[in-house]
Amino acid sequence: MSNEIGLRERVREPPCDRLVESYYRPNVARALAITFDHEMWIHLAHVLMLGRQGIVAQSAVAAILGCILDLAEGGPDMIPVDDRAEDMYSYVEREIVRRLGADVGGRLHTGRSRNDLHTSSARMALRGLLIENLQALAGLRTTTLDLADRHAETVMPGYTHAQHAQPVTFGYWMLAVADVLARDHRRLTGALLHADLCPLGSGALTTTAFPLDRIFTSEALGFAAPLDSAYDGVASRDDALEAISACATLMTGLSRVAADLQAWSTWEYGFVELADRHSAVSSIMPQKKNPAALEHIKAAAGITQGLLMATMACMKNTAFADVNDGVSAINEPVYDACQRTCRICLLLTEVLQGLTLNPDRMLLAATKGFGSATELADVIVRESGLSFRTAHNIVASVVREALEHGRTADQVRSQDLDAASQALLGKPLGLPQAVVTQALDPAANIRVRTILGGPAPSNMRMGIASRRAALAADASAIAAIAERIGTARMRVFGLARAARA
Amino acid sequence: MSNEIGLRERVREPPCDRLVESYYRPNVARALAITFDHEMWIHLAHVLMLGRQGIVAQSAVAAILGCILDLAEGGPDMIPVDDRAEDMYSYVEREIVRRLGADVGGRLHTGRSRNDLHTSSARMALRGLLIENLQALAGLRTTTLDLADRHAETVMPGYTHAQHAQPVTFGYWMLAVADVLARDHRRLTGALLHADLCPLGSGALTTTAFPLDRIFTSEALGFAAPLDSAYDGVASRDDALEAISACATLMTGLSRVAADLQAWSTWEYGFVELADRHSAVSSIMPQKKNPAALEHIKAAAGITQGLLMATMACMKNTAFADVNDGVSAINEPVYDACQRTCRICLLLTEVLQGLTLNPDRMLLAATKGFGSATELADVIVRESGLSFRTAHNIVASVVREALEHGRTADQVRSQDLDAASQALLGKPLGLPQAVVTQALDPAANIRVRTILGGPAPSNMRMGIASRRAALAADASAIAAIAERIGTARMRVFGLARAARA
Amino acid sequence: MSNEIGLRERVREPPCDRLVESYYRPNVARALAITFDHEMWIHLAHVLMLGRQGIVAQSAVAAILGCILDLAEGGPDMIPVDDRAEDMYSYVEREIVRRLGADVGGRLHTGRSRNDLHTSSARMALRGLLIENLQALAGLRTTTLDLADRHAETVMPGYTHAQHAQPVTFGYWMLAVADVLARDHRRLTGALLHADLCPLGSGALTTTAFPLDRIFTSEALGFAAPLDSAYDGVASRDDALEAISACATLMTGLSRVAADLQAWSTWEYGFVELADRHSAVSSIMPQKKNPAALEHIKAAAGITQGLLMATMACMKNTAFADVNDGVSAINEPVYDACQRTCRICLLLTEVLQGLTLNPDRMLLAATKGFGSATELADVIVRESGLSFRTAHNIVASVVREALEHGRTADQVRSQDLDAASQALLGKPLGLPQAVVTQALDPAANIRVRTILGGPAPSNMRMGIASRRAALAADASAIAAIAERIGTARMRVFGLARAARA
Amino acid sequence: MSNEIGLRERVREPPCDRLVESYYRPNVARALAITFDHEMWIHLAHVLMLGRQGIVAQSAVAAILGCILDLAEGGPDMIPVDDRAEDMYSYVEREIVRRLGADVGGRLHTGRSRNDLHTSSARMALRGLLIENLQALAGLRTTTLDLADRHAETVMPGYTHAQHAQPVTFGYWMLAVADVLARDHRRLTGALLHADLCPLGSGALTTTAFPLDRIFTSEALGFAAPLDSAYDGVASRDDALEAISACATLMTGLSRVAADLQAWSTWEYGFVELADRHSAVSSIMPQKKNPAALEHIKAAAGITQGLLMATMACMKNTAFADVNDGVSAINEPVYDACQRTCRICLLLTEVLQGLTLNPDRMLLAATKGFGSATELADVIVRESGLSFRTAHNIVASVVREALEHGRTADQVRSQDLDAASQALLGKPLGLPQAVVTQALDPAANIRVRTILGGPAPSNMRMGIASRRAALAADASAIAAIAERIGTARMRVFGLARAARA
To answer: Alpha-carbon torsion D184, D187, D191, D192, what sign?
Structure first.
């Protein structure tokens, strides 16, 4: 009789080839690759619960547990796929019914729907991906703090609008990156908290009249808590939108970091060089060493932005209910985005670690360009009592003059300021040359910026220490969640092994 | 002399007309409309601080404070705009210098840059918009809970894939909406926490050597805390990405709610009807009453998704630094998205409040459609001991048969089950007709779903109560932030008035 | 010596594992699957040309041609991939050098770069995908015209804003779909014309000093013409943006068609039913038959919109030059979008062919709803001489009254109009009941709409005939391009076989 | 009586404030600003046609024409807006009825709907915007060709992956830009052809039984032809998707041009400098001159990509029918995108015209960097008979060696090649130094690239001439369409003035 029952009794035809090709086959392949283990774990937890609640007899429970353990241990290849059914679960149930008969195997799905099964396994997959991302991000944050530390005094021009602005250090730039990434951690954590709720027991959309114990299954699957409303549990996927938004935001930030590094690794800047292993060559141009990893990172950011838009576009205007386009089709772009983001975090970590800096080129640029002009104007304010705007205008005309005559910042002299002051105010400034020289020294610029948030080395030391502590706390929190999940899995598999037929 | 100084001393031409038309004029108009008051407040706080720190003499401080208070009280129209300068601030400073002379007016901007001025006012604007959104959202959540309560027993078909699935109540659907919105609250709150940090004092990108007191200005502007790194303070806008992602996620959810309501307000469903004031007519078709508000909500969701993408696309591949495309140009789509989201929350609240339900049509559809078939199968499992899949297959063939003969769910008889069982198992089921009738009753279906997350009325009562409590706590937290900001503003304006010349 | 040369002489390390995992391995896999044959064909054409131009000696030409023919005939599995090189081409050249030695095998790439090789093969792949799409679209257009023909008199309500508007026929709706698709054909054709230009010979970005014959290779590869500027040939990918925009536009249109069909296949409408083979069931709800194909089509439209955005986001702000993010990384989303679009066109064709209509339900809805109210107002204008707006207002009040009393359109009587007219104008209309009845008859409404673009059956017959003719011409034009390409391929492989060593 | 009729007779309330604020008020404002004149023109054409067809008596026709001419001449301010109606048309009709009474004024809308009125005026607006864009684009193309001509021999490094690749000229780069823009012209033209079809006469969705002359009105409105199917005429907006896709593609391309110019205008490259009028300064950093126009162009590209996504997201999953979200709400982003694109084309034209080049810096970079290495390898092939790959490897090791010792390209000597050859092949190359020097000369590199598409000056001259001819033909074609439209407008207004009461 086992061959006579199945999911598609309601209809008289199997799915057509076009639908299989476009829809079911890629979906089944994705499920086998990503959620197979999660679903086996869910089956075990559900069946253990059915037994505990007396909904299914212990003998049947034991048989089904044994069968699922076999499949789980055998892996995805155990599941025969013939393109006649709709999803991985159909094939799993068919295999179980084939092995145990309809009367036993047909009880696995009691009080359950593919709706809650799939949103549960999707949340488990998403939860896992988010944890991997948070761990990869922690590694990247560690590296950015290490580099911030190492290069806290490596002077270079700071830019705004791609023009020399004020001197910074490479470490100071890196520290700002670390701060963005710390907020990315919080965004991913926010998404994780929402993904970490268990919809199992929602059934199709209204739970069931069978006396399920949803708290048991939630704990058995390592979730933080059950997701309350069954309707919410099968219809909502804002957890996925939040996760992919966090990924796209993170990746957009990394595209900016990569853009800076690519500019700085040009022949014209010459500030940094990627390791050979992160670079590509040319098949025709013998001199070429291209920063392949950086362009790849930027491209991955673009793809991730598109995956976010795909997810939102899929969901838009769908019924607020379990529907393919609004609930399950989005897993594809969401998993893809999470996986890409994780790989890019790992890659960028390596790229940063492999970077060679050229501090001489950096300092030279900072010295020749006019990035110290603000400090010069500020010094005029402090020394001469002029208003800032007046001092600003004096320096502006000195710079304009210097550039028009091909002079660099280190060639600015006290007399130049006097001449400009004479023209604007009718009197010279009379600043000693030593004061001017000091104001124009990029490293000195940095040393005097000691207020909160400034690049002075003392600030950097304290700031890096406090950020290392925060990072350690973040990493511990993620480790605790990962451990809770791992423990739950071991417990369920253990219970199942103890109870198997 | 006051006319001789200005921001553009470095260059010899004003902006060209094309650049003004495409860039500066809309930017200035937006600033005057949205950030004028925020920037006046910042000027006051900054100048008060410059005085307290001894950076600018009290006489000049008093004069500048007086001038700014004049402008703040006079409003945006006080600022003469002639399309020769780059932004609202240029016009403001020019006006102050015109009034006070270069030697006094030229001191306003000491130790400050437009970079930190603008990211501070942008964060204040964003903070305000997020608070407005959270307040509007609280109103919408209240209404959804009210409706969940009122319609906890208004039976209707529940749908998956737009087909009858299982009976639900209108209140149960509404409660799931409320749960999504509660998570939207948390996402918007996450964004608010990141927007609520003060970059003032960052200067252009590295703070300054003037001894600014960044904690004073942060508190004076009602921020939760200073944003530490100055570079971060002028280069990062992940706060904006987080805010607009949260808006787009919220709006995507609302598009689904609107899609349901639009389907249910068709002639064919006839479940709900919008109030006339939320409806449009036809200029040609006299019978027409169109659910205009719903289509507008869905359109606004699409626009908001696009604004999110605009923001991410602007920022992508820009230098990680203060640049127009990555930092300031995004304010336009971000403010727009926040404002639309707020208006839509307010509108949907009214639409829901104005909705007329047709409980008879809803119940009829639930009774005639086959949404109770799952419960029938479950009853077979419980009564006959068959496995769920076998019971499912029996009911599936009964339904298929009924539909092929044009029968409705309430016409299914015990004999139909017997016939199907006979065909599949070789024996009848023998279920009493009363059991079948009870299983097929939609209201009874709902009453028996009492486990966690089910639609049983008792569940609904408890669930609504706990959600009302959570909502009240959320609203209090937002009110506290709003009050902190309001208090800070009053204090600064008070200090300024006391100190004005 | 053959093992001593290679592409990465310039650098000292192979690509690192992270870069391989994230970048090179998926790229190589995609190339082996999609562009292997195109690149073999390019190699043959290029080497034949090198021989004809005397750039490489005939003996080496013969040897290389033989080697490439071997690989082409053996297929992608012939290429040993060890994750130490950057792309498929590196492996191909390495294999050729391994077989023929550096002195012969090292000549394949003379006067060529991977830049022009890859943009050529990308255009060949895109060209092929666009042709497949145009052919699938032609099939879909044929089916829509067939259904427009078959259902030219199948009356149903026409909707605006999801409310009954005016009577239409299913065929009339289908014809409008056909007209959108005809414009999609033109958009895809526009993209094809731009993809169908040959960049080969562009070299890295400036051609070469070797006397290449670009016209020979362009013709040999079946292109319409060479793409003139070499810089354009390696830096631009607007061909790809145009293609994916056309796909996303087409898919957005199909999402609307699917949305209509899904609404009409609900229990509440009951107008159409999908074939079982295009439907999915429920694992728990025995009655369920879900229009899976329609939700899949809508989801695919969302994904395609996201792929468009991914492509644009990748390209944004990249240098206008050969760069990974702006030129080659976009192939992934572009191919994906084209393939999905093609599969969906084929699937929707089948879905439409498998559709079961319920003309009775359709006509009943058209009769009971108030879709004929416009015609009634128009008849009043024609019969009574009232202005349209006055007649519109009379009918509007009649409808409002009827709905408030639960009456349907077919219950409207002449006296109802008289009463409304009396209220508004102070006098009855006095329309004979037969005139009212005729005006309210949905089928009659359709018959009288005979002006250009109206749904009258005579219009439909003529319109379908002219569209069939246009479709045949479109299909012929595509067939001619496909044949040109096929002929060119056969010629090149023939020349190569004749010349092989 | 005139005050007693109106559009909203069917309902009992005016729109609520929230709906007005969020939906109607901005829509009416947009209509008054963008489509007022188009709609007046449509009214005239429609009423003239109603008279010619005998549908409305000449006396009423004359009165209505007079009234509309009054409004058209008075401008949008003539229309009283009180936020009680739904759209501009409602206010216009109300005003006409107020002036002429219901019996005359109520006839304006005979045989017409807002549906066809609005899609007609939307197409007229879109048509106009596309023509403006095409004209602005023609100006930009002219400037790019002028610069290509002027700088056909201004040598600079050509880049791939932001690294020196091969020498190019600034003119050669500019010419590639011109070629992309020529394709943008074709895409915009494709969109224009689809927008240039007249839906007037479609009525609500099925035309009407009044004997309208749709060909008359189509010609009167200057359209190329009527849009055949009435349903298509009110339900489809693929014209808008095509237009905005073309804009977004164009803008994406311009973002790349701006990215190059921004890189080249850094202190580090120093190749180009924007005019002061296209630059911004800093309020704090006196030395700053920022390429504001370029960042604005890139930001505008990002916004335009977002507007495209907004448009597609709005339309997705809407009914294929006249609905707000799929048909009319998209006008906002589409108009916005077209207007931004036009402004950016005009701005970039000016920016290019105002650019100052630094040919010395450009040539120096081309000479010092290793961009001529490919030519050196090619010369080895030609002189020594080695295979290209072998030559490539020899040069690669020479370059690697040089860079590791801090030498520039112009310091490479024949002996360096001999040493590398000795290491790889066991024998020196023996190339005369003069040959090496010539191969490494960037200008010589360019001169020898004379094959189709190469940068040799002779190629440039011919290529620019042929492109100028193509551009002139493009401009003529657009001018002819603009003239057709202008003539039609003059004719209709003339006929109306002749016939006015």
So the answer is: positive
Percent of chain A predicted with pLDDT > 90: 98
Residues C416 and C484 in one domain: no
Q: Is residue B367 part of a domain?
A: no
- Write down the H helix ranges in B316-425: 331-354, 359-368, 373-384, 388-404, 414-425
Strands A225-226 and A272-273: unpaired
**Cross-strand pairs, B164:** B159
Percent of chain D surpassing pLDDT 70: 99
Q: What percentage of chain B reaches a pLDDT higher than 70?
A: 99
Identity of residue A174? M
Rounded mean pLDDT, C364-392: 96
What tokens appear for B261 in the block? Answer: 């309501």
Nearest by Cα to B263 from B276, B255, B254, B272: B272
Distance from CA of C488 to the nearest CA of B (A): 41
Q: Which two tokens stand for residue B468?
A: 């009302």
Q: How confident is the model at residue B4 (pLDDT cuts 50, 70, 90)?
A: low
CA distance D484 to chain C (A): 23
- Cα–Cα dist A463/A453, whole Å: 9
Q: CB–CB of B453/A215 below 8 Å?
A: no
* DSSP secondary structure, A268-330, as one string: TT--EE--GGG-B--SS-TT--B-HHHHHHHHHHHHHHHHHHHHHHHHTT--SSS-IIIIITT
Q: How many CB atoms lie within 10 A of CB D37?
A: 16
Distance from C-alpha of C435 to C-alpha of B310, rounded to nearest angstrom:
56
Which amino acid is present at C277?
R
3-class SS at B484? helix
- Distance, CA of D98 to CA of C358 (rounded, Å): 48
d(CA B138, CA B140) in angstroms, rounded, equals 5
Mean confidence (pLDDT) of chain C: 97
Provide, as residue numbers in chain D, all residues whose Cβ is less than 8 Å from the Cβ of C234. 160
Residue D434 has pLDDT above 50, yes or no: yes
Diameter of chain B measured on Cα atoms: 107
Structure tokens at C361: 């339900």
What angle, rounded to 10 degrees, do the helices at A292-315 and C331-354 form? 30
C-alpha D55/C-alpha C216 separation (Å) is: 65
Q: Which one of A89, A282, A308, A340 makes the best mutation probe of the C interface by having the most chain C beta carbons within 10 Å? A: A282
Cβ contact A128:A342 at 8 Å: no
Residues forming a β-bridge with C290: C280
Chain C nearest C-alpha distance from B189 (Å): 27
Are both D262 and D398 inside the same structural domain? no
Same domain? C98 vs C127: no
Residue bearing tokens 């319409």: C224
The CATH number given to whatever domain includes residue C247 is: 1.20.200.10
Task: Report the distance separating Cα B354 and Cα D269, nearest Å.
Answer: 64
Asked if the interface predicted TM-score (ipTM) of this complex is over 0.95, the answer is yes
Q: Are residues C334 and C189 in the same domain?
A: yes
pLDDT of B164 strictly over 90? yes
- Tell me the CATH number at A23: 1.10.275.10
What is the chain D residue with the closest CA to C211?
A: D451
SS3 readout for C220-233 = HCCCCEECCCHHHH
Give the residue from A180, A296, A312, A458 with the most B CB atoms within 10 Å of its CB, the best one to mutate: A312
Sequential DSSP letters for D231-247: HHHHH--HHHHHHHHHH
* The pairing of beta strand B155-160 with beta strand B163-169: antiparallel
